[in-house]
């Protein structure tokens, strides 16, 4: 029964590698760009420190549009951008482009939410002691919101894993694509189940790690 | 207590601040002028909604005044560019009703943050943090987190944090209003020490009569955004009190029967 599973062992590992690349780069993009974007979303909200109606409207529209696109159509729509950035619209690296863009939009929302939970008084205290913008962000906001930020990144990562499963359409590969091509399309049910179990383990691991880190960081 | 003359460390001159509400403007502070003498403990008392907290926030420009000037230690804060204002704020400590500590870092780190912001080198920071902790009597709590402390202890940490940059002026926004009476007395003692021992001028906003009675050298009474009465505890400054504020003056000065209409 496990023959077929063993037979595709090499492809399986390759797929896991592809999933890691796609998800890893998306997480990187979420941190590098989603975190600052979310911080900006937070600051220009009504009633916040740098309230700015226009900027808020523009940023919110962009984030909402990206998030409301059916993902596959976003992948297709972004093909020119992907070509420009990676040089090709096919393959694992190409797949990271739409994934990263969704990742940035998705995580920025969760960042905004986490920052909203920081008591306003803490911001006031920071300003009262002469904190600059960066001081306020790094010594107060991110410190107080850190467990929420980690939890948000955990949730995001799991979403990215899920999004990455459809990247087979542009040759992105990954575990989901493996399950579809080797398991589903070749009627090898064991292989499909095997791949699904790998996904489940992956998600559990991410959730457990993220949850634990978040709990350890929370001293409130 | 050392009296350093009658020099005003803080002057508010015709300061106003309004907020937009759904149904028009709300004038939180209305044309207020106030001098706070160096070395004094100046209480601002009044009912909630009288504009006390807004007045306090106008001092370090957490609220930007619509009109008027704020002068601290001879410097006009209202005209300062933001970078300079931040520097000036380092020398104006502030404590709050809800303490507003960073709860995810230790007590000592909380006290160290203002020093980090001011660019004080690490060795000096550690020394200063220890001094401030000793001053508020929490040396043994240095490595604990705020959540592990009682309300009174948290306010002490907040005080130590406000003192770390050696401010000349300490602003207190209802600092004892969420504490029980015993703890309130302890915190008031700490504030007295700060004033007497370190020579820090204290401005305290409160609705608690007892706080003003046991602590303040000077008192201003606020009502509907205006200062309606100002007097000093020592030299029985008997300017006529406005209607309905006589009661505050009488209670604080311990006199009954001063006439008011």
UniProtKB/TrEMBL annotation, chain A:
Sequence intervals crossing the membrane: 20-43, 55-79, 85-107, 149-171, 191-217
Keyword Transmembrane helix in record: yes
Cellular localisation: Cell membrane
SUPFAM superfamilies referenced in this protein's UniProt entry, alphabetically: MetI-like (SSF161098)
CDD domains per the UniProt record, alphabetical: TM_PBP2 (cd06261)
GO biological process, one term: D-methionine transmembrane transport
Keywords: ATP-binding, Cell membrane, Membrane, Nucleotide-binding, Transmembrane, Transmembrane helix, Transport
Highest taxon in the source lineage: Bacteria
Any Pfam family matching the protein: BPD_transp_1
Domain ABC transmembrane type-1 residue range list: 16-209
Family label: Belongs to the binding-protein-dependent transport system permease family. CysTW subfamily.
Predominant place of localization: membrane
Protein's name in the database: Methionine ABC transporter ATP-binding protein
Automatic annotation (TrEMBL), chain B:
One Pfam match: ABC_tran
Keywords: Amino-acid transport, ATP-binding, Cell membrane, Membrane, Nucleotide-binding, Translocase, Transport
Residues in the signal sequence: none
Gene3D superfamilies, sorted: P-loop containing nucleotide triphosphate hydrolases (3.40.50.300)
Gene Ontology biological process terms in this record: amino acid transport
Domain named ABC transporter: residues: 10-249
GO molecular function, one term: ATP hydrolysis activity
InterPro entries, sorted: AAA+_ATPase (IPR003593), ABC_transporter-like_ATP-bd (IPR003439), ABC_transporter-like_CS (IPR017871), MetN_ABC_transporter-like (IPR050086), P-loop_NTPase (IPR027417)
Keyword set includes Protein biosynthesis: no
One cellular component (GO) term of this entry: plasma membrane
PANTHER family: AMINO ACID IMPORT ATP-BINDING PROTEIN, METHIONINE IMPORT ATP-BINDING PROTEIN METN
Family stated for the protein in its record: Belongs to the ABC transporter superfamily.
Identification of the protein by name: ABC transporter ATP-binding protein
Organism the protein comes from: Paenibacillus etheri
Organism phylogeny: Bacteria, Bacillati, Bacillota, Bacilli, Bacillales
């Amino acid at each position: 029964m496990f023959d077929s599973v063993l037979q595709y062992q090499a492809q399986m590992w390759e797929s896991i590698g592809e999933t890691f690349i796609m998800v890893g780069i998306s997480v990187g993009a979420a941190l590098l760009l989603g975190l600052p974007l979310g911080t900006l979303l937070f600051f220009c909200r009504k009633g916040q420190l740098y309230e700015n109606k226009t900027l808020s409207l523009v940023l919110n529209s962009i984030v909402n549009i990206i998030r409301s696109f059916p993902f596959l159509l976003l992948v297709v729509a972004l093909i020119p951008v992907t070509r420009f950035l990676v040089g090709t619209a096919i393959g694992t690296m190409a797949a990271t482009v739409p994934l990263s863009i969704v990742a940035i939009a998705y995580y920025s929302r969760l960042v905004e939410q986490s920052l909203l939970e920081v008591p306003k008084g803490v911001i006031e205290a920071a300003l009262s002691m002469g904190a600059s913008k960066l001081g306020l962000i790094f010594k107060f906001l991110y410190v107080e919101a850190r467990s929420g930020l980690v939890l948000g990144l955990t949730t995001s990562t799991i979403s990215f894993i899920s999004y990455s499963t459809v990247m087979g359409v542009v040759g992105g590969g990954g575990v989901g694509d493996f399950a579809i091509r080797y398991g589903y399309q070749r009627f090898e049910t064991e292989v499909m189940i095997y791949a699904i179990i790998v996904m489940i383990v992956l998600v559990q691991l991410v959730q457990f790690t993220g949850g634990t880190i978040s709990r350890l960081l929370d001293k409130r | 207590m050392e009296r350093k003359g009658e020099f005003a460390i803080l002057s508010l001159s015709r300061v106003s601040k309004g907020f937009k509400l759904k149904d028009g403007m709300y004038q939180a502070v209305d044309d207020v002028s106030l001098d706070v003498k160096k070395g004094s403990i100046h209480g601002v008392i009044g009912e909630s909604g009288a504009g006390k907290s807004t007045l306090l926030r106008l001092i370090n420009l957490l609220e930007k005044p619509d009109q008027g000037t704020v002068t601290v230690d001879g410097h006009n804060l209202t005209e300062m560019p933001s970078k300079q204002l931040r520097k000036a704020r380092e020398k104006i400590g502030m404590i709050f009703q809800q303490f507003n500590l960073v709860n995810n870092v230790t007590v000592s780190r909380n006290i160290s943050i203002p020093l980090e912001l001011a660019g004080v080198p690490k060795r000096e920071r550690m020394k200063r943090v220890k001094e401030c902790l000793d001053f508020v009597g929490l040396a043994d709590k240095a490595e604990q987190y705020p959540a592990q402390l009682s309300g009174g202890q948290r306010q002490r940490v907040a005080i130590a944090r406000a003192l770390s940059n050696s401010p000349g002026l300490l602003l207190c926004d209802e600092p004892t209003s969420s504490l029980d009476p015993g703890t309130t007395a302890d915190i008031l003692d700490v504030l007295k020490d700060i004033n007497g021992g370190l020579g820090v001028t204290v401005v305290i906003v409160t609705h608690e009569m007892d706080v003003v009675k046991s602590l303040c050298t000077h008192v201003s009474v606020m009502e509907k955004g205006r200062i309606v009465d100002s007097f000093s505890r020592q030299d029985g400054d008997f300017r006529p009190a406005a209607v309905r504020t006589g009661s505050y003056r009488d209670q604080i000065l311990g006199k009954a029967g001063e006439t008011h209409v």
